[in-house]
Amino acid sequence: MRTRSTVPLAAAVALAAAAVVIGGPSAPATAAAPAPLFVAPTGDDSNAGDLAHPLRTIQRAVDLAQAGTVISVRGGTYALTTNIQIARSGTASQPITLTRYGAERVVIDGEGLPNTPAPVGGSVPRAQRGAVHMAASYWRLIGLELVNGPYGLYCDGCNGNVFERLSTHDNYETGLQIQGASSNNLVLNLDSYRNRDPRKNGESADGLAIKEGSGTGNVVRGARLWHNVDDGFDAWMFTSPITVEGSVAYGNGFNRWNFPDFAGDGNGFKMGGGDPDPAANHVIRNSMAFGNAAHGFTDNGNPGSLTFDHDTAYANPKTGFDVDSSTSRLTANLAVGNGTAVALGRSTGSGNSWNLSSVPAPASTDSSVLTGPRTATGAIATSPFLRPANGADLGARI
């Protein structure tokens, strides 16, 4: 699977820390990059924040950051009593970076926050949503693990951000949620799993949601979304096109927490919906949905013209491709072992498995490589899982 090329984390930190301005007498004046900031569990917020004298809290570093600052967080668990609030924006040319230091494991633990969980039938005040709560633009969050929060990462009114190689799991709401007026955000190589919502008996917590808002240019690439209580991906009430590429949703919508009156939906990719349903022309390509409790891919009432291209739906008990509310275009998609292959309605397509006289068998139904460790670059490891054994140009190649 192709992924966006990135500079290794340690190299990025080193480059930022070593940045200098070079020029002779005639060279134009150039502003030096801000000094990097470092955070460590053994630090002190009264420190200068350099590598030898790190800060103690991520919030202090966030408050000190300017456009172009790189914040490097040393390994350890950062147990929160108030959530991390990111309100200051970087710029398009000088984003602010919040990253783990090298390959060290950084866990941001929200178990001590309010609303973990909220009471049944309760709501989470907006400012308390997320172990990390963002209302800012032009940030890069890289390599962090967000757990046990009232949402993992919640971003409302965000533009031009990159969320790269994050792990958001075991939160009391959606793992990563973007909403409001939010444009040009990239979610790259996300792992989001086992998120649940006791307050709604499973009706709300997804792996990843871009919902209840608008804004062009939002892209999801290389995400794995699994064992979440509601859906893998949810685009409910988002009125602008979202692009999803090279992503996987599996095992979503099962009541692993024994919630009473269980309300989880269990779709792999929920590509819209609302009350009333807004039309949004989302695009999803080279992606897989398997073993979810309901549909693999669904327009969920979205009346727009969506694009489904080279996607694979496998072993979903309802419909592989449920697109009978939209006027979608489906090309070279593969549906195997679902309750129903497709609910087409007014949607059209060509070269899909249901257009063939016989559906090719998969080369492998062993998902262990795809669901196992990522590669050194953060990509999903390549395997023959669910590829047609006869080499037909059908479905996803991950």
From TrEMBL:
Pfam families: DUF1565, Pel9A-like_beta_helix. Residues 42-80 form the DUF1565 domain. One of its GO terms (molecular function) is carbon-oxygen lyase activity, acting on polysaccharides. It comes from the Bacteria. One of its GO terms (cellular component) is extracellular region. PANTHER family: PECTATE LYASE (EUROFUNG), PECTATE LYASE PEL9. Its cofactor is Ca(2+). It comes from Actinoplanes nipponensis. Keywords: Calcium, Lyase, Metal-binding, Secreted, Signal. This is Silent information regulator protein Sir2. The keyword Secreted applies. It is found in: Secreted. Its main location: secreted. Residues 156-316 form the Pel9A-like right handed beta-helix region domain. Belongs to the polysaccharide lyase 9 family. Residues 1-31 form the signal peptide.
